[in-house]
Amino acid sequence: MIPKRAWIAAALLACLSACSQFPARPSDAARQSTSADQLALQGQLSVKLQAFQGQEAKGLSMGFFFNGGPQGGQLDLMTPMGSQVARVHWTDADAWLQTDQGNRHFDTLGELSQEVLGEPLPLAALMHWVQGRPAPGLPDPINTQAKSFEQSGWQIDTTEIGIGRLIAQRPASTTLRGITVRIRLDR
Question: What CATH number is given to the structural domain containing 119?
Fold first, then answer.
């Protein structure tokens, strides 16, 4: 059996209350834009961290329900069997991780992913990448090709974005661990 911390780590990649109970799940609409900066998404998330400097490789998959945008929102993380294991809630000023073991506060989503996964991930950028576009506020994309681009060291493959699939990879280097994030949106 995979430890609960591992389930939480996988879901946070990809991929984002300090309230006492979880709300109902989103409606049947698996993917729905609520405005230009707000999204409602539902799907599966897979994260693979390569072995690096004595750290073992990790890989996990989770279901998720995402509602929000860069200024704030909520991400509910589910086991493959549908049990909720965590909720991430954020604003433009801070982030919280809620599990059955309590709530933890972080200054940023990057700090939250660093603590849980051991790697800071561009969680806010994923909100834009899953829509097939570069994230504003990051350096301009380079090596732009049809249906793919590179931004901030991440290679973004949007070849299958029309069917709700995204692959974001950060290649390994002598100073960075290689990471692959796969998102499959439910239709």
Answer: 2.50.20
Backbone phi, then psi, for 106, in 5-degree steps? -135, 150
**What digits encode the pLDDT tens for the residues 138-164?**
999 987 778 899 999 999 999 999 999
CA–CA separation, 49 and 94 (whole Å): 25
pLDDT at 125 over 80: yes
CA distance 88 to 43: 16
Yes or no: say if 135 and 141 are a contact pair by the CB < 8 Å rule. Answer: no
Enclosing domain of residue 92: 4-185
Structural domains counted in the chain:
1
Measure the CA dihedral 18/184/130/161, to 10°: -160
